[in-house]
């Protein structure tokens, strides 16, 4: 039997593979999907996004440019010097996020289809406890 952390790592790899497949079907990457979600939540400038997502501005700038090119985002120059950019998610971007979210929810429902609700709740509790334990261990 695998150790708990090894089993968790294997599950994380499977989950990542599913997310890559779902996002690729919409013409975006997992990172771009996560970025679109933050933009929908109101983080509409590069500065706000960099802080929220803990990304350096060059990486973020490339991802934003890619999403603009894919017509998932629009950008508008504002301010006196027109150097501040405000990003907005397009209808195509909204649709991509909604489709990935719905497909992922279906995947998650299929995974836990045979699990009683009390076991799902217990798993959430244990995973949160594990996350806190790992955080504490890494902080020491």
Give a structural overview.
It contains six helices and two strands. Strands 1-2 form a two-stranded antiparallel sheet. The chain has 140 residues and is mainly alpha-helical. It is globular and about 60 Å long. One of its GO terms (molecular function) is DNA-binding transcription factor activity. InterPro entries: HTH_MarR-typ (IPR000835), MarR/SlyA-like (IPR039422), WH-like_DNA-bd_sf (IPR036388), WH_DNA-bd_sf (IPR036390). It comes from Lactiplantibacillus fabifermentans T30PCM01. Residues 1-132 form the HTH marR-type domain.
Distance between the termini: 29 Å
Largest sheet: 2 strands, antiparallel
Query: Class, according to the CATH hierarchy?
Result: Mainly Alpha
Helix segment tally:
6
Helix- and strand-based class?
Answer: mainly alpha
**Percent range of helical residues:** 55-70%
In short:
With 140 residues, the protein is mainly alpha-helical. It is built from six helices and two strands. InterPro entries: HTH_MarR-typ, MarR/SlyA-like, WH-like_DNA-bd_sf, WH_DNA-bd_sf.
List keywords for this structure.
140 residues, mainly alpha, Arc Repressor Mutant, subunit A, 6 helices
């Amino acid at each position: 039997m695998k150790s708990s952390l090894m089993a968790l790592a294997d599950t994380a790899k499977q989950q990542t593979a599913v997310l890559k497949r779902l996002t690729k079907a919409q013409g975006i990457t997992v990172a771009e999907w996560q970025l679109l979600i933050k933009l929908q939540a109101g983080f509409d400038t590069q500065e706000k996004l960099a802080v929220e997502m803990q990304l350096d501005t060059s990486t973020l700038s490339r991802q934003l440019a890619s999403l603009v090119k894919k017509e998932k985002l629009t950008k508008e120059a504002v301010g006196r010097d027109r150097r501040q950019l405000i990003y907005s998610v397009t209808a195509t971007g909204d649709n991509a996020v909604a489709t990935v979210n719905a497909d992922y929810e279906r995947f998650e429902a299929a995974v836990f289809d045979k699990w009683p609700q009390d076991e799902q709740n217990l798993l959430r509790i244990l995973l949160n406890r594990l996350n806190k334990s790992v955080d504490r261990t890494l902080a020491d």
